[in-house]
Design brief:
Elements: H1 2-11, H2 19-53, H3 58-117, H4 127-144, E1 147-155, H5 158-165, H6 167-184, E2 190-195, E3 198-206, H7 212-223, E4 227-231, E5 234-238, E6 242-249, H8 256-273, E7 277-279, H9 280-283
Parallel strand pairs: 6-7
Antiparallel strand pairs: 1-3, 1-6, 2-3, 4-5
Helix pairs in contact: 1-2, 2-3, 5-6, 6-7
Length: about 290
Amino acid sequence: MPEENSAQSLKNPDPATSLSQVLGQSERIKDIVEECADDLSSVNARLKLELTEGEVSPGVENALEISEAVEDKVQIASDELSLVNMALQDEVHERTILQEKLAAEIKQGDKARHASLHDPLTGLPNRALFNDRLEHGLAHAKRNGHSLVVMFVDLDDFKRINDTHGHDVGDIVLTTIAGRIKQASRDEDTVCRHGGDEFLYILAEITSERDITPIAEKIIAMVKLPCDIRIRNINIRLVVHPSIGIAIFPSDGMTAESLVANADKAMYQAKRNKSGYSLFGDLALLPD
């Protein structure tokens, strides 16, 4: 019978059944109980009418008394179910509020974690997240015998942009170039803002050093595209030239610190030579 199935479901709810579903089941049972109470009331009224219209046996009178007693119990059960459902509704409401608060706290926590690991201007990973990914990348490269590359990207004469056009324009240029470097990267790579006009780039799982310079050349080509900016009703076109230093694990360093430091040295060599990019390994070939 339907009421038996509902009662069994309420008695032994599945662990995954939500409190709202339990409330729905309880309300359906209450409807069934109220329907039974109405049916009993109608039957008892009909029996009372027959008793007043003629003689009936003592057995019928006794059955009527029992039926009326059952009607009272069913009505009491219906009233108690109403109280239970009200309590369940309150519990559902309180749990909903708690869930909403928990979801808001989780979201706020996610935002805080994201803010602590990303640059607020460009949205790129910051140095803390970069260092963490570099350490993991080095561990993976050591285990699997892969190469790993750190590129140090600096924007030539960027200070002049801030001095000439203001920091608002400089911030737009930085955001634009950050997006271009990110666009030039692969999904498995990491680009971070190191600070000011400097960026760091991890190329993971490099199998051939021949794959490195095309990526550097692609970054240079994308960064050098004109930045067309409209600010304060003024149109400004700026072209920025990057200098990139490249250090390769394991030949140019075995630690995160040494790779970043050596990529930095190579970057300054590229800046002095105006060559666009320079590999740290090539510095040893230069005359003193």
